[in-house]
Amino acid sequence: MRKIDVRKIEMSGPDDTRVLKALIDEGAVDPKTIIAVLGKTEGNGCVNDFTRGLATLAFKRLIAAETGWSEDEVSRKVAFVMSGGTEGVLAPHALVFCSIEAEGEPSAEKTLAASSGFTRDFLPEEQGTMAVVEECRRVTLELMEKAGIADPADVHFVQIKCPLLTSERILDAQERGCEVVVHDTYESMGYNRGASALGVALALGEIPEGSVSDEVICSDWSLYSKVASTSAGVELLNCEIILMGNSTAFDSDFAIGHSVMKDAIDIEAVIEAIENAGMKVDGLPTTEQKARIVNALAKAEADSTGYVRARRNTMHTDSDINHTRHARAAVGGVISAAVGDPMVYVSGGAEHQGPDGGGPVAVIVRR
Amino acid sequence: MRKIDVRKIEMSGPDDTRVLKALIDEGAVDPKTIIAVLGKTEGNGCVNDFTRGLATLAFKRLIAAETGWSEDEVSRKVAFVMSGGTEGVLAPHALVFCSIEAEGEPSAEKTLAASSGFTRDFLPEEQGTMAVVEECRRVTLELMEKAGIADPADVHFVQIKCPLLTSERILDAQERGCEVVVHDTYESMGYNRGASALGVALALGEIPEGSVSDEVICSDWSLYSKVASTSAGVELLNCEIILMGNSTAFDSDFAIGHSVMKDAIDIEAVIEAIENAGMKVDGLPTTEQKARIVNALAKAEADSTGYVRARRNTMHTDSDINHTRHARAAVGGVISAAVGDPMVYVSGGAEHQGPDGGGPVAVIVRR
Amino acid sequence: MRKIDVRKIEMSGPDDTRVLKALIDEGAVDPKTIIAVLGKTEGNGCVNDFTRGLATLAFKRLIAAETGWSEDEVSRKVAFVMSGGTEGVLAPHALVFCSIEAEGEPSAEKTLAASSGFTRDFLPEEQGTMAVVEECRRVTLELMEKAGIADPADVHFVQIKCPLLTSERILDAQERGCEVVVHDTYESMGYNRGASALGVALALGEIPEGSVSDEVICSDWSLYSKVASTSAGVELLNCEIILMGNSTAFDSDFAIGHSVMKDAIDIEAVIEAIENAGMKVDGLPTTEQKARIVNALAKAEADSTGYVRARRNTMHTDSDINHTRHARAAVGGVISAAVGDPMVYVSGGAEHQGPDGGGPVAVIVRR
Amino acid sequence: MRKIDVRKIEMSGPDDTRVLKALIDEGAVDPKTIIAVLGKTEGNGCVNDFTRGLATLAFKRLIAAETGWSEDEVSRKVAFVMSGGTEGVLAPHALVFCSIEAEGEPSAEKTLAASSGFTRDFLPEEQGTMAVVEECRRVTLELMEKAGIADPADVHFVQIKCPLLTSERILDAQERGCEVVVHDTYESMGYNRGASALGVALALGEIPEGSVSDEVICSDWSLYSKVASTSAGVELLNCEIILMGNSTAFDSDFAIGHSVMKDAIDIEAVIEAIENAGMKVDGLPTTEQKARIVNALAKAEADSTGYVRARRNTMHTDSDINHTRHARAAVGGVISAAVGDPMVYVSGGAEHQGPDGGGPVAVIVRR
Fold it and tell me: Which residues does substrate bind (chains A, B, C, D) (predicted)?
């Protein structure tokens, strides 16, 4: 019997791991049980955001020091997914998942289950293609098994960190006579996010077998997952995946639920996600209920039409602030208001993750 | 007997007055009845935001052309208050107030009342001082009378456009041997916004007689108005004031209510404002109720502590995006979600307007 | 016999026309002789820069008021080219060109000649295509004749303001069953800038007859003009063109020369342009020589490779500041240092205007 | 006999130390001889710039791995000064100084000398006060001796990394009943930069003994050093100092010279600095001369008046881009153009470092 422990820790900067260190020092967290660290760091969340790499390095060094493992060993055992951008009220933080051996018998009730894993490395010419789709599909299915989840309906959030193309990687492909999916390195982020999400959608049967090919990636927006959340980063060549759901194989103090925001201000979907996690809400959560909400995890993006509820916004025409930053700020406000806490995980760029302008939202509650 | 008509019109750019033109052309709006235009324009809302001036110029020219009045006449008859910044989902728009002669008897029910007026021009050395406080107090009281409001509790929103100091104006004061309140032109915006708001607070009896002096302006934050909303702009030397409330002297199709957001994610206060306007809400407004909400008007600001609900945010430490832009984006998301419409009026910089990090919120509903 | 007078006037804001007003009041400028106003305004120079429209409106209103012409008449007689973006040391200003009847005999020496004109309006589906190329070619040739310039080598700067696509214009084309060159409105700026520049290149014989087709626009960068400088703006549907050169048909107090900057720090090219205008320079201009330089006009852009002189820069990877703003700031520094004056005209986005990462630079000197 | 070796290495990102690693691997650099690493990293150079810390961590880790020293030992032996901000054409890079035992006799000619050292840690209440001034003065004098420089005129650049106040540090002072110099953490950067620079000015006799007190720091701008260049960072509590000059005690292949830029476009001062380093220049450096210029090091800032050469700029009124970023972009363009290389070190914020709007500029040339 196992249980998943979740710790939401504040960060005073991208390299601040003091809270996790204190939890380890006081025995509250056994560093060898950590399977994943999911972070929201305070960079711009775009191309030149180095806070993601700095946070990954800081947590990796801490866990290596506390476990005695090498940094490479830590990299093979723990999934690090850092998402940049804490616009508006959003609070920089990390969510640490521990998988702990627990005593007792399996309970009848499904509780929070989580597992993490890795795809193989991708060649530059494979990025953003079916190669990524297939590997993410394969690992998602593995992680379901690892988390003791048989029914795809019990999977509520699949967080993936995927690679991106750089000038060097593109050159490498070209020197071997291969062509990459796109030459713009910024756009390659979207292709990899989209391909990863479609892999999840196939694994969970959200879209029909055979519906995905290289051509539909970042092109046919009718295909999407309602639980995938993917982020690209320069610091890796494979995908790191964290799967979350509910299972009777775990006896955790937590449960998770999800819904899909139809657009950036769909607060009703956030309430649905809370209820889907097993907490009945009357209008908005009460103070007591808010205290039991551990975190909300969501994707945000500017609707490609430039409109929300038929009202024009300026997210796409503002040449001073990137539209992903506008979107995170607004959606961060909406979700923070719903759960009564600005320390929530809102990530930008939702290709094939929910409908245009919307995205998946999951909520973890203390049972 | 009079009634107030309110028209919320979309703007495809700061100088787009086509919707108002069409309403005038089709006879829905009589240009001579317009008493105020309150706009949300798509600049950065900070020092170098010229969309406010452009929008003012555009609406002034249209009204002059349609009424046959000179632009100067229009300036003396209509209050133009343009607030810059439509971050996140916020939609650029203008709210046009018309005061119309109506037939019939006074109704027993209080309905939307509005009036607009102007203080005298201020010398540079008077800006941000008791001179502004006193004038705003005086005109607020006049506007209450003009709107047929006797009880300060029936005043729900007082929007003021105030001046700011420029290098030229400071020099002018110095050449006459006078000292200005602050030499930083950006900071002078805050002093004028604060002084204007305190004038409203005195007029409405929100703070004790004699509690305001030059020293407390932008210093003693315990003094504030719960209904004042003030914006500074370079384009004027006096204050333009729009007062909104409910009165039996008007037989309008609308009513207004307000509340105070304690912080940036206080969605409960937005619901309170809706209810205060006479619409009973169960949790969140229904689709039918949302259709009857004309607009929400609110002030947003980054809490000076850098924290919301004890969670650190990066609004004050982000050197790429001004904190007022972060605040409008987040609060804009919250209010849009509550009323189901991103075309709401959220303005930044709330000195002496509600508590630190919070601010007044008013809602106009169709009865 | 005619002469061209050039007035460089400072602007304290995008709508500040006080200096020109004063020059008219004191009789130094006859408003009816103005043929063009070329401005550098303080917006971001990108999509949501409304300072260009505001400045155009302000100057148009002033000239209408001072001449007694209607604003429409002014539009047909005077070319207004406003370019946004005054990053770094660049000073907002306008350059006013007057074409004046002068007494005396034609001089043997070539002096500053200038003329302005307009293409026909373009349908949305014509934007960024050969239709623009051909019209700009035609008008450029007309303007040469109007300026008394027979030899293309005597043309030193051709400034064009061209239109761009908006969502409305794209829709209009589609409703008539026509296709536009690109659906991204931002990218349409580049296509129109490029097409306009190629029209100039054809008119002046800089590239071979028949070398331009729809396919090469914004695609074959080996084709470019060394004297074209083009800017796109939402406020017009045709192209406004100002041509500058030297001619014996004018007896001006000024002369113009040009060169091509090979990259962003090619200060040697700026010196060459000064010398090309007839001022012999030893190293850098002396204080006396600097006083005789009226203005420098140049195009700036970030090299598409991300490198200048084989050194990596971050103009293309900085997600907080648009690369055109980086480029104007840097090139503005270089040119200001060369001529000893930060009030110079540096405009961004140089498709088919000089080589990748470089661009034309012209200098007007007092003889 | 010793010699200073200087290596300018490109960085493809803030944590890219590959070039230094390669130099060590091929035996070109002995890691134990490194005394200082001076870097220009690609963050925004303001409060939330984490690229400085990331680069420091990366170089520290590399040197620790290559020398076998602990990271703490490296910290005590090597000065790391990272300055953020590579706007415009500026290229991210690091300058590595090695102090090497050399054979042979002292030469008659003065060549590049360099030394590095550290002040004691400062209490929060000491930051930005005479405590910093005195310690920087003391260590500067020590470093002169260490570099074999007796005459202050032979000191050409003193680079200091100083601390800044954080909310935690201010709280710590207050809990001990002490007051800090300023509560705004951003402003504390300026006080520390200013105090450090005044310490250098006193050490070198640039300002009279007794002229500095707490009151004049960041207040009396007539007091400044012509060779100090100071940067604040959150990652340290003391000052790290790198002193550069010329001395007969060293037999280096390099020499250094300096001058003071009077304003942001004072390219003549850059030429003077090159000549001061011993390279006679006719106008602008030739291609051969440019190849011998190793690096230029300069401070840039926006003139507090908002004017350069009596021309208004918008660096202080642009609410989208911090004025320090504007200044680095412009000055970076000027200096890159003068030396023909965009890989130069231009740092922002020049309190008490050269006159208002200007700053020191030093040039290192290969003899």
Answer: 52, 83-84, 193, 231-232, 328, 347-348
